Amino acid sequence: MAEPKTLPGANGKRHLLGRIFIWTLLLAAAVLYLGPIYVVLSTSLKDLAEIRAGALLDLPHELNFTAWREAWSSACIGVRCEGLRPYFLNSVIMSVPSVAISTLIGALSGYALSLFRFRGANIIFALMLFGCFIPFQIVILPMAQTLGYLGIANSITGLIVVHTIYGISFTTLFFRNYYVSVPQELVRAATMDGAGFFRIFWHIMLPLSIPIIVVSVIWQFTQVWNEFLFGASFTSGGSQPVTVALNNLINSTTSVKQYNVDMAAALIAAAPTLVVYIIAGRFFVRGLTAGAVKG
Amino acid sequence: MATISIEHASKSFGSTDVLKDISLDVKDGEFLVLLGASGCGKSTLLNIIAGLEPIADGIIRLDGEVVNDVHPKNRDIAMVFQSYALYPNMTVERNIAFGLEMRKISKAERKATVREVASTLQIEHLLSRKPSQLSGGQRQRVAMGRALVRRPKIFLFDEPLSNLDAKLRGEMRTEIKKLHQTLKATMVYVTHDQIEAMTLADRIAIMKDGEIQQIGTPQEIYSKPANMYVAGFVGAPPMNFVDVDLVKREEQLGVILPAVLRGKPVDYFLPLPNSEQLHARENTKIILGLRPEMITHNAFTQTVNPEIACDVELLEPTGADTLCLIRLANHPAKARISPLFACTPGESMTFTIDMARVCLFDAESEELIG
Amino acid sequence: MSNPQQRKQQMSVLDRLQRYLPQLVIAPPFLLLVFFVYGFIAWTGIISLTNSRMLPTFDVQGIQQYVRLLAMDRWNVAFDNLLIFGSLYILFSITIGCVLAVLLDQRIRAEGALRTIYLYPMAISFIVTGTAWKWILNPSLGIESYMQKLGWESFQFDWIVNRDMAIYVVVLAAVWQASGFVMALFLSALRTVDEDIIRAAHLDGASTTRIYFGIILPSLRPVFLSAFVILAHLSIKSFDLVVALTNGGPGYSSTLPANFMYEMAFRRNQIGLGAASAMMMLATVAAIIVPYLYSELRAKRHG
């Protein structure tokens, strides 16, 4: 917005006070937002004795990565003492196909819904959109049974299927709202040039869609990676995703609480989505706001 | 040969009728302009010819063959769009060649054809650029190139110049006209700009509310507008309409023109040629249509045309002419005079009325009389 | 090309197929969602009318599961918690997010960095958020004991183990996670405000504060609405955060309906009751979402 300072005759002193006030609030907020991650990180680098001494906010005396090593490869989750690693891999195996498939389907259906406004397209879109908002508690009971019928209960394949299906609502929304802003004349011109539905999609729309593909992939990845309810409901033991394993690790009551290992495990579980966020934050924000701001 | 023939075409979106029983013939090699305000159905009509929109009723023939169910790509038609609709991800070269590519024409042949078209349009130096790196005028040329490259028998233009600034618009207008003269192809051109329509068209079809109001040469449309809508739409400034009484004085049929002279109302009698049609309307209200240039200064000492003297409220010099705002039948009207004869505002001045060219309209139906 | 007539005929069959391709392409994903969303809702609805315990049965009995549900203290606590949690979560997230967005809109040099800091919690799973806050707030080694060791002997912050206060801990962690998102929503909307309006207001002699309260914020009404709808439905869905932070405790004092449903369906072999509670959750979401979607899509059609 227009900067008042640049207006001639503005009160310089009042302006300075205002700036100090703004910066104080902004920095205080930054400290509060960063606080938890600082505490988690510093705890994960301390040894247990240091933690028990109770200096929560102090920096660790020395950088000690044993807790990280343990969390990754030897901490006991349930009866297995292999650390988070197998579950982390489960999450990777689960995320990649479900993100790819749901993005592809969303791209095609968003394209069909936005650029070919056939009769009923709006109703179909509204019905699909509602799928973004349902509480998943409403589908877990039938889904558990269905996965059983299909023979993919308690498997990563089952989770891939579930995440793909319920991701379609979101990916369709992203692509539909993106393609709505593409001028209809482009499709008409390509039709005159002799390109059909799929060739227009492949030659013209997909090359235009890189930004929204990134948005969709990041969003779906974050959703699938961070998801807990489906993982907890449909899997047990060795086929659980990392979020469920982390929760089991934290809440295990068998041995002495190893807070440093817990915190390291939490950071390991959060790392992929955090890295994606830091690398591609701009697209992450667009995904978050895509559903909220009119397309 | 490339003729277009539309018979009784109708189309509606939901409850609004966009086209109502349109019939239209376009001759081979003709440049037809569809002119009308936005929402009159002219673009829909164009899309129907292209095959981009199906019609509810009626028949479309290209070269006598019914094409209602023929896909756009098989109609041998090219179209230039208002937004140019260039494919943003492709270079200019590929944009132009895309239609050929889709028709499975060999790469070498594509390349040669694109070069040729590019040189006609003087865009060879732009071939490797992306559309986003082009100016508006350049994009327009590329869009033309994309249409030209396929050598179609029919060209359709959907307001192709409306996104350009005034100067470029004039230049491109000339180029399109030249192109038509060289290619001798059938062209249908949609616009809301009457200057484009007048300068480009062999014939103009004026549309309103999904109906064709009049089809004719630019000159016919200008001098013999079929109704008041056409008369008011074409011409700038628009035709002045004056409510007048048709009376007979001393065996001479004529109209009473109320004007204002030195602040006082004054009536002038303007004689009209005796005709059967007018006799029948004696002592009724009709509407007198006067284009600004029909009310002008008297450059000669002698004239057969009637003269009126009235107050000039305002002057608008346009360079070549000066427009005088006067008051006829209590409504503002514009007269077009030479700047040499201009008076000062507030003074009164004598104008001659070119009675041979005036238009008379029925007060009820608003149709041209005669 | 030897027989052009025949060629044209062939084309037109393909072309006719082309005309229906959009519908053909949308059909499979649409039918998938019809089955897996609407079909499953119906399925759950039917189960909620049965006496299903460990395994679902389809022997419809009537609404007694709902009657049982509404009489259960555990459910009523969960639903009251949802009202407390939902309203505070929405209120604080929107207030904090809006304030941060307006402050960041004042040509702050480090805007990019600050934005990244405010928003990163949104990239983290609820489980991790819950784990982190649970550690920070635990009374024996967390912030309470740290403050006491610093010399502030009377400092008390044991909400996480306090029956009456545990739900507010959930609010705290949830607001920490979502307020940055609201900030991003508002900031992107602030960037679309017409600069000319602000210039005009300056010329009219309005102060920056007045411009925000009188002109800009009122023009962001749709954003407030969007933020409200998104946060409201997120609060109804909230499940993982409670699991990781308090696990519903102490006792069941901080459960939310989502946790109630899971508990009944998967731990206590009360599938019928779980289904009934899921239907209640869906009804709550629908009451907010359906009018919103209806008005959004209608507005789009007319615009």
Automatic annotation (TrEMBL), chain A:
Query: What domain of life does the UniProt record list for this protein's source?
Result: Bacteria
Q: Name one Pfam family in it.
A: BPD_transp_1
What's the chief localization of this chain? membrane
UniProt-listed InterPro entries = MetI-like, MetI-like_sf
Q: Which keywords does this Swiss-Prot/TrEMBL entry list?
A: Membrane, Transmembrane, Transmembrane helix, Transport
Q: Which residues cross the membrane?
A: 20-41, 92-116, 123-144, 156-179, 200-221, 263-285
Where, subcellularly, is it found?
Cell membrane
* Membrane topology, from the record: Multi-pass membrane protein
Record-annotated ABC transmembrane type-1 domain positions: 88-280
PANTHER family for this protein: ABC TRANSPORTER PERMEASE PROTEIN, GLUCOSE IMPORT SYSTEM PERMEASE PROTEIN GLCU
- Family label: Belongs to the binding-protein-dependent transport system permease family.
Q: What is this protein called?
A: Carbohydrate ABC transporter membrane protein 2, CUT1 family (TC 3.A.1.1.-)
Q: Report the source organism.
A: Pseudovibrio ascidiaceicola
UniProtKB/TrEMBL annotation, chain B:
Q: Name one GO molecular function term.
A: ATP binding
PROSITE patterns assigned: ABC_TRANSPORTER_1, ABC_TRANSPORTER_2
Superkingdom, taxonomy of origin: Bacteria
> Record keywords: Ion transport included?
no
Keyword Lipid metabolism in the entry? The reply is no
Key words, A-Z: ATP-binding, Nucleotide-binding, Sugar transport, Transport
Q: Which part of the chain is the ABC transporter domain? A: 4-234
Q: Name one Pfam family in it.
A: ABC_tran
Give the family, as the similarity comment puts it.
Belongs to the ABC transporter superfamily.
Q: Which PANTHER family does this chain map to? A: ABC TRANSPORTER ATP-BINDING PROTEIN, MALTODEXTRIN IMPORT ATP-BINDING PROTEIN MSMX
Protein name in UniProt: Multiple sugar transport system ATP-binding protein
What is the species listed in this Swiss-Prot or TrEMBL entry? Pseudovibrio ascidiaceicola
Q: What broad taxonomic lineage does this protein's source fall under? A: Bacteria, Pseudomonadati, Pseudomonadota, Alphaproteobacteria, Hyphomicrobiales
UniProtKB/TrEMBL annotation, chain C:
Q: Which residues cross the membrane?
A: 21-46, 82-104, 116-136, 165-190, 211-236, 271-294
What PROSITE patterns does the annotation carry?
ABC_TM1
- Report the membrane topology from the UniProt record: Multi-pass membrane protein
Keyword field: Cell membrane, Membrane, Transmembrane, Transmembrane helix, Transport
ABC transmembrane type-1 domain segment(s): 79-294
This protein's record includes keyword Methyltransferase: no
- One family from Pfam that matches here is BPD_transp_1
Superkingdom of source: Bacteria
| Family the UniProt entry places it in | Belongs to the binding-protein-dependent transport system permease family.
Q: State the protein's name.
A: Glucose/mannose transport system permease protein
From which organism does this entry originate? Pseudovibrio ascidiaceicola
